[in-house]
Amino acid sequence: MLNHYLHRIKVHLVKTHSSVLDKFNLGQEAKDFRPLDGGWSISEILEHIALTSHFLLILIDKGAAKAQRNTRNLSLEVALQEFHYDLSAIETIGIHKSFDWIRPEHMEPAGVKSEMEITDELISQLKRCLVHLEDLRNGEGVLYQTMMTVNGLGKINVYEYIYFLSKHAERHLAQIDENVAEFNERHPA
Length: 189
Known about the structure:
Elements: H1 2-22, H2 28-32, H3 42-70, H4 76-82, H5 88-91, H6 115-135, E1 145-148, E2 154-157, H7 158-186
Antiparallel strand pairs: 1-2
Helix pairs in contact: 1-6, 1-7, 3-6, 3-7
């Protein structure tokens, strides 16, 4: 069960980040296009993904360290026997417009980083998540939980936090696709 659970998170993480990184290959005019509803441009969405992941990884890094420390005074075997390998509560995070999400102001794009800096940051973030999954490959990630208020998730473990990060990026991929469709409609080839 644990291997399947971790594999599912890892595959989603890699596929989602690959898709996000592919969006940098869109034409600059498409990336700068602002939809009629006044939403973010694709460039801003990409920056927001990296920015949000930055702040999520601060919590993931701390949670991973605490989970490792908890192996000294908690029974990993008992925790894994009692653990429910269910990621369904986090699935809605990846669906664009599935619920109202008020993001903190510090996670709004400011346009101060270059595309190369954002790309490098996204790649680095992916690598950090993969290192955490490898370092916690024996189930240690269930030994620490952090509160997640978004969509009423409550306490989630380190693995779920990593999946949340990936699902957040997936949510914005749908937003990017909407922008591309609107751009193409308004700028037919």
